[in-house]
Amino acid sequence: MDFSKLYRPSALNSFQFIALTGLLMSAGAHLILHFFVGRLPAGFNWLYVCWSGFYIVGTLINLFGKPDEPHHHHHH
Three-state SS string across the chain, please? Predict the structure, then answer.
C-alpha cells in the first residue's frame, strides 16, 4: 500500500486536495474570527469534521481505487 498518497502533493487526488485546501482556509478563517471578531459562528467547528471526512473519502478512493482509471493526470 502506497502511504505517500496520504501526504505527497503529486499523489493526492482531487478530493484530498480540496479537503486540505478547505482545512487550511477554515483554519485561516478561524484565526481571523478569533482575533478580530472575538467569536466563532455556531457550528463553525463542523467545518473541520466535514473537511476531514472529505479527506478520508478521497484517501480511500486513492488507496483502493483502480490505478489504471483515466482520471489520473500525473504521468511521471
Answer: CCHHHHCCHHHCCHHHHHHHHHHHHHHHHHHHHHHHHCCCCCCCCHHHHHHHHHHHHHHHHHHHCCCCCCCCCCCC
Cβ 61 vs Cβ 4: under 8 Å = no
Query: Cα–Cα distance between 69 and 39 in angstroms, integer?
Result: 45
CA 56 to chain centre: 8
**Residue 72 predicted with pLDDT over 70:** no
| pTM for the model | 0.74
